[in-house]
Amino acid sequence: MYTWPQSHLKSRRGGEIAVFGAGRMQKKIDKKIAILNVLKEQTRPVSSAKITELLSLGSLMFSERTVRLYLKELDAEGLTIPHGRKGRVITEAGLAELQSSTIRQLPGTLSAKIDQMIYRMTFDLPMRSGTVVVNTSLVDPDQLADCVEPVCKVFAKGFAMGKLMTLLRPGETIGEVLVPEGRVGFCTVCSITINGILLKHGIPMASRFGGLLEVRDGKALRFTEIIHYGGTSIDPLEVFIRSGMTNYHGAIQDGNGLIGASFRELPSESRQRLINIGQRLEEVGLGAIMELGLPEQPLLDIPVPSGRVGAIIVGGLNPIAVLEEREHRIFSRALSGLIEYDRLFRFEEFPRRLQSYL
Amino acid sequence: MYTWPQSHLKSRRGGEIAVFGAGRMQKKIDKKIAILNVLKEQTRPVSSAKITELLSLGSLMFSERTVRLYLKELDAEGLTIPHGRKGRVITEAGLAELQSSTIRQLPGTLSAKIDQMIYRMTFDLPMRSGTVVVNTSLVDPDQLADCVEPVCKVFAKGFAMGKLMTLLRPGETIGEVLVPEGRVGFCTVCSITINGILLKHGIPMASRFGGLLEVRDGKALRFTEIIHYGGTSIDPLEVFIRSGMTNYHGAIQDGNGLIGASFRELPSESRQRLINIGQRLEEVGLGAIMELGLPEQPLLDIPVPSGRVGAIIVGGLNPIAVLEEREHRIFSRALSGLIEYDRLFRFEEFPRRLQSYL
DNA sequence: CAAAATGTCGGCAGTCTTGCCGACTGGCCA
DNA sequence: TGGCCAGTCGGCAAGACTGCCGACATTTTG
Predict the structure, then answer these.
(1) Are residues B36 and B52 in contact, defined by beta-carbon separation less than 8 angstroms?
(2) Secondary structure element (H or E) that encloses residue A153, with its range
(3) CA A37 to CA B320: how far, in whole Å?
(4) Of A64, A320, B144, B254, which alpha carbon lies 20 to 30 A from A20's?
(5) CB-facing half-sphere around the CA of A92: CA atoms within 13 A
(6) H or E segment at A265?
(7) Cβ of B10 < 7 Å from strand C?
(8) Residues 6 or more apart from B96 whose CB is under 8 A from it?
(9) Residues near B217 by beta carbon (within 8 Å), at least 6 away in sequence
(10) Is the CB atom of residue A10 positioned under 7 angstroms from any atom of strand D?
């Protein structure tokens, strides 16, 4: 299956021509794989529109009609089966096919991991319960105690994702991270939790890139460095923090500094709904939207495709970055795992809670 | 010019559909802009084949025929003019058009900078003269003296780009970097010099990503982290080094460690020529090719598009990374500028030369 | 329960993309 | 000078992509 005629087709002259285009058949295969990949993540039948939407999260842009066309082909090949008008599900054969061709994927970029996490989290906004995605840092409790004040200030100034956090004791695990003896796990809500919540409300928010955001008087000014999620295996904010390129000191002092933030985009029609939901997020301590663009309008000079709006979301790892800035080497892991919402507490409680870990 | 019908075209039902695809017209515009961008960099007429080739350096994949089609349209719009069979050049109007739509570009990714540097360098392999692209690190001469041995070892073990380097005195400048009083500028040849040299020989080598390469017994094993050049504003290797994620200590000790390297690809037919040129590069102290894949074959599990081969190139910044690993904070700038080839000397001279800077 | 609303699917047609070919030009060599 | 080669160009047709529509199924509403 999927043997393609393999450009033997060098024309008499201009022999190189066939080389540059990846080849038609190859493109088709790639698209099929992409679709199967989306289907793989879902348990219930998915419709073509939904698939298109999910695909667009990963910057794959083709129309709903085209997706439907491919689905038809996939049906014919037995890789998917239609479930009436509910949509399609992937078959065993489809999974196998995916397996065999998964080798031609790049080693896990962050986008992939983000998608996964979004599917797995369960937080329900009206119920205020379920799991959220968190970042975890392993730190020496004494060093942490030293930095209680600036950490709280990062929250207070709104440079953190929401107002919530939690602490883990030695021996506890989160995802694949085990808190070792003599350390404490410092968890903050990861900003992609927002994406997850929005997706459950039918708003497909796509993460474009993470970067260092220059703030002036507490307002977002511009990105000084960026790394696209689609092109990295390591979390951009993690990198900037470890490299000591941030400047939270200034940010919490007088509102001028460099903080971690990320750029996302969503369909223009969802804008108003995002504003409504954003308000409710603030109420439950998960507010994170720093800026929201206008349809078609560049945001901080960053252009958005037509029909979409841009948004700036503050980085989840921000509070812990002040430790690194104080030359304390810490181990941070973005997207480390899921945690129940009711295990989180407001940052104001942080100093008191920390006592029991010292 | 370039007003597009702007998706008012919501169909009666399924109103969202039009949103996901970026729109046909938009796609066309993007392609035209891309072509104009290529043309802008060139002074002499360029043919459609050449343009396709250059375009493919930036992962834009469409066929030579398609480029020709667009060129025709551009001609008609007066943005380019055909120069007989030599090719096309961009017109004033074309440049203006580019200017006005340049706003919808992302802030300078590294790819863009790489392209620029490649065009500007002038090194000529047969003549062994001209300029090459270098990375510069500003370091305390005493700290540097401490690390002479490991630095030389990185070169000796072949974990550096070639065998050459140079030193700059306080007050000298390279690109936009000025060596301050009390520091010395440590320059190594940047690995994209290879791309530039190859391009002059008609081989379009595209840089895909930089990453941390795990070496086992001195052999490349796999990438543990990667960042695509197309998606970052900051040099990946710079980042990994600053984050302290490398392990040169091990690499030069027993051949097991983590070093900076980058993944590139080129057309399959160029493979043999690359081998030949690679040999000559070794002779002039610019050897950097660690691994070269086979056509169609994944290299270190990294797939390549059909008709292309992958290559692993060692990172130019590698020698200086040992300093960072010894906890010496240094300032490094990849792609800092151009320097004359004859100002470089072999690393064996490094200890002696350094004396005069102490 | 009927009517309306929402959402899926496939057909059709127009546009975009690309492989292939023949025509042509300019350079090189016998 | 004539023939061969390498490279460019445009025409043509097949294939891919997508907008638009009508046919239906399911859900919601009054």
Answers:
(1) no
(2) helix A148-156
(3) 41
(4) A64
(5) 0
(6) strand A257-267
(7) no
(8) none
(9) B254, B255, B256
(10) no
Residue B350: name the closest of B330, B315, B322 by CA.
B322
Q: In angstroms, rounded to a whole number, what is the distance separating the alpha carbons of residues B108 and B104?
A: 12
Could you give the CA distance from residue B281 to residue B277 in angstroms, rounded to a whole number?
A: 6
Cβ B78 vs Cβ B36: under 8 Å: no
Residue nearest to nucleotide C7 (CA to C1'): B14
Q: Tell me how far the alpha carbon of residue A113 is from its chain's centroid.
A: 8
Q: Which residue in B18, B103, B306 is closest to A22 by CB distance?
A: B306
Contact B160, B317 (CB under 8 A): no
Over its length of 358 residues, how does chain A's per-residue pLDDT go in tens digits? Answer: 322 222 222 332 333 333 444 567 778 888 888 888 888 888 888 888 888 888 887 777 788 899 999 999 898 888 898 888 788 889 888 888 887 776 555 556 788 788 888 888 999 888 899 999 999 999 999 999 999 999 999 999 999 999 999 999 999 999 888 999 999 999 999 999 999 998 888 888 989 899 999 999 989 999 999 999 888 999 999 989 888 889 998 998 898 999 999 999 888 878 888 898 999 999 999 999 999 999 878 899 888 877 788 999 999 999 998 888 887 778 888 888 999 999 999 999 999 999 988 8
> What pTM did the predictor assign?
0.84
Close Cβ partners of B214 (under 8 Å, ≥ 6 residues apart): B220, B221, B222, B223, B224, B257, B258
CA separation for the pair A32, A36 (Å, rounded): 6
Collapsed DSSP state (helix, strand, coil) of residue A352: helix
Domain positions in chain A are 17-105, 131-355
Tell me the two tokens of residue B339: 């320097």
Give the Å distances, CA to CA, from A52 to A61, A158, A303. Answer: 8, 35, 22
Distance A21 CA to D9 C1' (A): 19
Chain-centre distance for alpha carbon B347: 23
CATH architecture of A131-355: 2-Layer Sandwich (3.30)
Q: State which amino acid sits at residue B18.
A: A
Identical fold, B17-105 and B131-355:
no
- As ranges, strand C nucleotides with an atom below 7 A of a protein CB are 6-12, 15-23, 25-26
Contacts of B61 in chain A (CB under 8 A): 20-22
Q: Between the CA of residue B74 and those of B81, B82, B305, what are the distances in Å? A: 8, 10, 29
Question: CATH says A17-105 is which class?
Answer: mainly alpha
